[in-house]
Amino acid sequence: MIAPGRFIPFAEQTGFIREITPWVLDEAIRQLADWQRDGLDIVVSANLSTLDLLDPGLPLYVGALLERHGVAADRLCLEITESALMDDPALALAHLGELAALGIKLSIDDYGVGQASLAYLKILPVNELKLDRSFITAIDREPRNAAIVQSTIMLSHALGLSVVAEGVETEAELAWLRAHGCDVAQGYLVSRPLAAQQVRGWIADHAPVAVG
């Protein structure tokens, strides 16, 4: 196994990411269809690079994949980084608008470490912000991190966006996020990466138990 951080930057620099992303999207949507047939109603996320986002054929390709595999558009979430918006903001915004028009969920990944202005939040057709793990680590002990995350949660909710905290690794971090209204936690505390065939069992083991 090779960590994404070791090959994704190289793939983006060389342009080979254009070969990787179509395969990833096809596999993600195919797997989502399999899970749906098994009765799992979940949303699957996939990342887009700058080159992907600027590809004029992307919206049509994703729409065709959803139709081929029989998956509802709102079960797919595409994640973009702030930096992906900066090369050609107008074109990126146009393509995001086309994806949103299909009903696909959109997310800004690693929010807070890129270059995008807060003004973009007014116009981007996104559904969620994913706070970079650098703000989440030791959030229960770092007042500056806490202030940034709390204000971002309030701003996001005021704009109708959900907030995902990346890199949650301790119970104290999770407790702080829960107490301050964060919508979703992501990190090793929740789960290490799983093979597709393990997901159903994990969900069954962690499903809330009805009482009464």
Describe the structure.
The chain is of the alpha/beta class and 212 residues long. The chain has two domains: 1-108, Alpha-Beta Barrel (TIM Barrel); 127-212, no CATH class. It has ten helices and six strands. The protein has helices at residues 4-14, 17-37, 50-53, 58-69, 89-101, 120-123, 133-136, 143-158, 171-179, 196-206, and strands at 44-47, 76-81, 105-111, 128-131, 162-165, 184-185. It has a six-stranded parallel beta sheet with strand order 1-2-3-4-5-6. Helix 2 packs parallel to helix 4 (58-69) and helix 4 (58-69) packs parallel to helix 5.
What is the percentage of strand-forming residues? Answer: 5-15%
- Give the mean pLDDT: 91
Number of strands: 6
Low-confidence stretches: none
> Which structural class do the helices and strands define?
alpha/beta
- Using only C-alpha atoms, the radius of gyration works out to 18 Å
Globular, elongated, flat, extended or rod-shaped: what is the shape? globular
CATH architecture annotation of the largest domain: Alpha-Beta Barrel
Read across the widest sheet, the strand sequence of neighbours is 1-2-3-4-5-6
Give the end-to-end Cα distance, rounded to a whole number of Å.
45 Å
Order of helices and strands: HHEHHEHEHEHHEHEH
Biggest sheet features: 6 strands, parallel
- In CATH, the topology of the largest domain is named TIM Barrel
Question: Under the CATH scheme, which class of the largest domain?
Answer: Alpha Beta
Count of individual helical segments: 10
